[in-house]
Amino acid sequence: MPASKVYFTSARCTVWDSSCSLPFKYDQLLLLAGLKKYISPKEKVAVKIHFGSQGCFRTVRPVFVRKTVDAIKAAGGRPFVTDTTRIDSLEYLEVAAYNGYTHLTCGAPVIIADGLFGKDAVTVKVPGAKHIQEIDVASAIYHADAMVVLSHFKGHIQAGFGGAIKNMGMGGVSPFTHCGHNNRGRLHSVSATPPEWQKGKCTFCGRCEKVCPTKSISIKGKESLKVNKDLCWICGRCARICPAEALAMPITSERLAIHIAEASKAVISTFKPKKIIYVNFIMEVQPECDCMPVADTPVVQDQGILISDDLVAVDRASLDMVNRAKPLPQSRAEDYGLKEAGEVLSKVNKRDTNITIEQSEKYGLGSSKYELIEYKSEGKAGKAEEHI
Ligand code: SF4
Ligand code: SF4
To answer: What whole-number distance in Å separates Cα of residue 176 and Cα of residue 42?
Structure first.
């Protein structure tokens, strides 16, 4: 596959001029990446973000969502800001508002892509898939004409990192099928059943009960722990945070990467070619996913923003940038004794971060070869139009 273009602007700002500040450089980067080419007048354009969670506040900053919405409107499109259900939808909209995403701040409606009950979705077949032969894509994404995918690039306890690929594969599908069966849960596990509990290992610390978004776990004293299988949507959070490994979610990193690639393929297939553009924000790179109930300090310094119409290339370029960055003190990187640049997200999450990219490339989602095109602003004189 030929190299894909990835447009980049650095988070650094060394000139005392607002045009050198990241939000204004982002305006120029959208121009340079040719956002207009992807949107036709009057098209409904999904701005796919992750709303975060209660306690996890290091998501894409609302100013960048607003800038994206303004750019889509300037191109003639009709944007809406969206994410799929992760907890009860009404609660999730509250979380979105707490994290700064409202119609007023974003300049466009903020909606749940798969409806109030997480069941508004369309079944999509995945040709050539090994494991996920079909999956339910959130209806607002399925029916959108174009999409701008804004991804906070950070770590992930199961996949090693989360960026554009994961935002599509996990974030573009609903948790349930129409008849209430688990849809997204199949991506997290090979068994499609709730995590298994091993009493002998459990210390009854109660962390799993607190982290469960569906209140499926009930612990009685130091005697028993029950997972309500009718409520559990197999998100795997409880197993991931259990310090004693007493809850098992059977899946390997490779299998998870295949599931995510297959689901991403399904979501992409609902758009005509050249209708999706991916924006990665390498900022506040916390060690874990935005769906966790915490946000630790960043493990590397802010790098900047990358844009491409190739989700594999934009994630590869982002990962390379993070891998070249020096680990930060007073972060989980320091807890692990990391002082030199290299694979920081792999090391803090004990996962091979390359697997998701490799599997996605195998599935033909994009190319890991990229050409990095940097936009630099040197004050008022440096306009992106001059670089095109
Ligand atoms: S988090 Fe693990 S150790 Fe703690 S109560 Fe749950 S299963 Fe037991
Ligand atoms: S997998 Fe665990 S955290 Fe997720 S819904 Fe089921 S019991 Fe709750």
So the answer is: 31
State the closest ligand 1 atom to the C-alpha of 197, by its place in the atom list counted from 1. Answer: 7
Q: Can you tell me which atom of ligand 2 is nearest the CA of 237?
A: 3
Of the residues 191, 237, 242, which should be mutated to test ligand 2's pocket, given the most ligand atoms within 8 Å of the CB? 237
In this prediction the pTM is 0.92
pLDDT along the chain (388 residues), means of 10: 94 89 96 97 98 93 98 98 92 96 98 93 93 94 98 92 96 79 79 88 95 91 91 87 90 89 96 98 95 92 98 98 97 96 93 93 96 87 47
Q: Which ligand is nearest to the CA of 203?
A: 1
**Which residues have C-beta atoms less than 6 Å from ligand 2?**
194-195, 212-214, 216-217, 227, 232-238
Query: What string of H, E and C letters represents the secondary structure of 79-102?
Result: EEEEECCCCCHHHHHHHHHHCCCC
Q: How far is the CA of 155 from the centre of ligand 2 (A)?
A: 20
| Phi, psi dihedrals of residue 166, rounded to the nearest 5° | -70, -35
Q: Given the CA of residue 211, which atom of ligand 2 is nearest to it?
A: 3
H/E segment holding residue 48 = strand 44-48
Q: Whose CA is nearest to atom 4 of ligand 2?
A: 235
φ, ψ dihedrals at 159, nearest 5°: -95, -5
Closest CA to 112 of 94, 133, 132: 94
Ligand 1 centroid from CA 202, angstroms: 5
DSSP state at residue 2: P
Angle subtended at Cα 70 by Cα 106 and Cα 17, rounded to the nearest 5 degrees: 100
Domain architecture of the chain: domains with CATH = 4-180+253-387 (3.40.50), 191-248 (3.30.70.20)
Residue 296 is given by DSSP the state P
